[in-house]
Amino acid sequence: MTETTQRPPRPRRLPNSGAWGATVILLALVGVLDPGAFGTTVLFAAKALLHTAPFILFAVLAVAYLKASGAETLLAKAFSGNPARMIVMAALLGGLSPFCSCEVIPFIAALLAVGAPLGAVMAFWLASPLMDPAMFAITSGTLGWEFAIAKTLSAIGLGILGGFGALLFAKTPVFSDPLRKRPAVGGCCGAKAPFSGTPVWRFWQQDDRRQMFQTTALENALFLLKWLTLAYVIEAMMLRYIPAELIANLLGGTGLWPIFLGALVGAPAYLNGYAAVPLVDALLAQGMAPGAAMSFVIAGGVSSIPAAIAVWALVKPKIFGAYLAFALVGAVLAGLIWQVIA
């Protein structure tokens, strides 16, 4: 991650996403193959964006403030002290911080290189892709406050699960010598000197921080707009063209199978955390079980391309496999709990 006095960091995103192009292609297909549905599809997406607009605005301003103030410097404090405390703090900060996986690659590489406990690093890695202020705002606006809070607690719980799991088996062959010989410390954000300095909460008193606030707000607004537009178009198409009975038969009902299947489907079907929210909304409307929805967003978030690459770039395949295993187990547990209380 860059320092606050250097080039502003980019928002979290998938590389070469082409979201706008995908949206145009999908709308063109609807217009050609089902002209009568074109207007309703566009109207559905527009209404959904309008409904989500206040949450998008809050998310954009919150992330821009945290970036401009340099709040990421507080992250380093989670990786010092008692190992158990480190794991809990890392999970909490990972589940609440607004920083993408690629931005923390140099920071994590440095910690692992100097011997920071793998448990704390694992806790942060598992929780970090799942929730942040922007994600919470978008999720609560579409799926409700209860689901957003439950996902936040699940993210923190997953981090704690993976962290203490890594701590418990730290002396086994799987978790020994975790780093690759030459870990890649670069990332899609171009970060080189992470988490230095102290936060400046009144960032508007400095020109460079004001510029960072403006740049971050604009880039995140465009990022959310393009991905949510695509997601709402896909949601409208799913509601129109995918039979509700199919979703209900595959992912509906009670028991372990729909939740486990939701976790398995979440990995390949996940676009990113923001785009997944409207898709889950559509699946729920068509009969997806609540527990399966939770396992879908938890497993998919951890296994999404940016999150997975951040881990793969630094550690050996055995650690990467453990990361995915913790994600699957945690997703199923979160789904089972949510199925009971939802």
From TrEMBL:
Name this protein carries in UniProt: Permease
Highest taxon above the source species: Bacteria
Membrane topology: Multi-pass membrane protein
Transmembrane domains' residue ranges: 20-38, 44-66, 78-99, 105-127, 148-170, 212-234, 246-271, 291-315, 322-341
One Pfam family it belongs to: ArsP_1
InterPro entries found in the cross-reference section: DUF318, UPF0718
Gene Ontology cellular-component annotations: plasma membrane
Family: Belongs to the UPF0718 family.
Cellular location(s): Cell membrane
Lineage, highest ranks first: Bacteria, Pseudomonadati, Pseudomonadota, Alphaproteobacteria, Rhodobacterales
Keyword terms: Cell membrane, Membrane, Transmembrane, Transmembrane helix
